Amino acid sequence: MSRALPLADVTPLPASGSGPLYRQVKRELQRQIETGRYTPGDTLPSESVIAGTLGVSIGTLRRAVDELVHENVLVRRHGRGTFVALHSTDSFLFQFFHVEPRGDASQEATPHRRELPDVDFIGFVKGRADETEAAALRIKPGDAVLRATNRLSLRGRPVVHDLLVVAAGMFRGLTEKRYRERPSTVYRLYQSDFGISVLRARERVRAVPAGSETARVLGVAAGVPILEVHRVALTFGDRPIEYRVSRINTSAHDYVSTLSKYV
Questions:
Q1: CATH number attached to the domain at 89-255
Q2: Domain HTH gntR-type spans what residues (predicted)?
């Protein structure tokens, strides 16, 4: 059952503090979540209680909460309150999985539900970070890392060859068995078992020729053009927690992003 504990170790925020007051409120709510006062699925106290505790107006609080909802840190449920967001299959599809079967351009404006890919496990090994992995994860070259590889298919057709890399020190106790037997997405595993929430990701996309391993995994000819997406998943404070390289066969699929600007 979700709980609504009072905020811990807080005093009213000074109007002369660093930055706009709503940003200070936002940072304080983030701190409460980062320190484990509120965990995924927990209910936050009512607006009046939080505003009173921090010494701010309801309007200032709502502006801070609005940003955290937009950033998928919090979720509002009408008539029930505000909760710390849980990673779910739907949120994963909306935020982090962007591969779709190619459709008619005339249907682009029509909302549709993305398909959850079938995931085939390929391998899970412990190794040492190379320079690229170390830079992405902000660790030292040679530090211990865990690497997992998967093949993702849509409608029975292999589409994505995924390599995931995490720092072993951040995910102590993560084993191949635990990884393979996770009941939901890997981001939900990070959150439920290790208390680490993926809030956003930074990606770089490029076209490359398929290497021999990717060609074998996706069933394409070596050297054919594919899309390569380098993603760094970030948690609070933009701390990197996962480096992922996704090699995508775009012969019948597109990489689709919906862009918006939060004001």
A1: 3.40.1410.10
A2: 19-87
